[in-house]
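Ticket closed. Logging final result for Methylenetetrahydrofolate reductase C-terminal domain-containing protein.
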Amino acid sequence: MGTAACPKRMTYGPCGGVGADGGCEVAPEPCVFLPRPLPVRWSGDGTPLEEPRTRAGREVLEVMARRPLVVSGFPAAPMSRDSVRACAEALRGSTDCVLAGDSGRARVQFPPAYRARLMAAEGLRVWSGVNCRDRDRDALDRELASLREVGVAGVHCVTGDHTGSGDRPDATPVFDLEATTLLPRARRAGLLTSFAESPAAPPVRHRPARVAEKVRAGGRLCWLQYCGEVEDVEAFAAATAAAAGAPVPVLPGVPLVVDRAGALLLADFAAAVLPEGYVERVLEARDPEVVGVQVAVELGTRLLGASGVAGVVVAGGAGPGREVAFARALATVTRELGGGS
Ligand code: SF4
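Final structure:
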């Protein structure tokens, strides 16, 4: 049963886009979930959830059994095979898997399975972002089956930003499913799953319990929106373990900023809270690229040593035309953090 007044038609809200003042990320009104009893309990039928059927998915679990997982973003230009290949080449061997996600500045991308096919052909383990904004459940089921055939390591299941944000506000938003209802479909398709949570977005005290509900729905790894200092990540990991009754593998983000364009991109993320002075230290440096890599390695190293942290996701962006250079910078950071070993 959907929640009619939520612009994303969510049942298992609130999404991660709730403003600091409790405002909806889409409509000029308060988020409809804030006055309701939370968390919204997962009402699924308890169908057995399959273990990953792809070799890459099993390899990721093997890596996680011996050390933290190091994931990188993928900065390729949209709709460009050449850029996909060049960025893949830059990242190959330096990271455990690569997230091919969504971008507010380029909503029109190759379909996830096709992009994953191109990336896998270049020797990467691929973690594909799948959102509920662009496709209904039939199209999503086709996409999940295709991703399994391509052999991706896993899928990052998100409700997704509304079309009201980003570069295609003319598109009709779908939201037939949402992250919580996409997760069990991905597990039944034989895929390893991840989901997002925004610890710093209101209602902050209910966010750990929301993670627990997503785990009950079929989520395996929880990837965190930037939420402040290392201690904030540790506190959230402990709270999710308490809410779920067992530790949840939590992977905080490590933002890589190497120029002003990347800093602006970061500013677009709702509910993102960075360690104090993080971006300023890069932008005020004589060589922002060198210092950007340095601060990302420092933060990533501290996060990998933090209690309750199962890995990190290093991501960010740079100005148009700098995709391959940014992929090389990502590779430097992930290699330093032990990725690909
Ligand atoms: S903030 Fe998110 S969950 Fe809340 S009403 Fe808006 S779109 Fe729905």
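The beta strands are 69-72, 97-100, 126-131, 154-158, 192-197, 221-224, 250-256, 311-316. No further action required.
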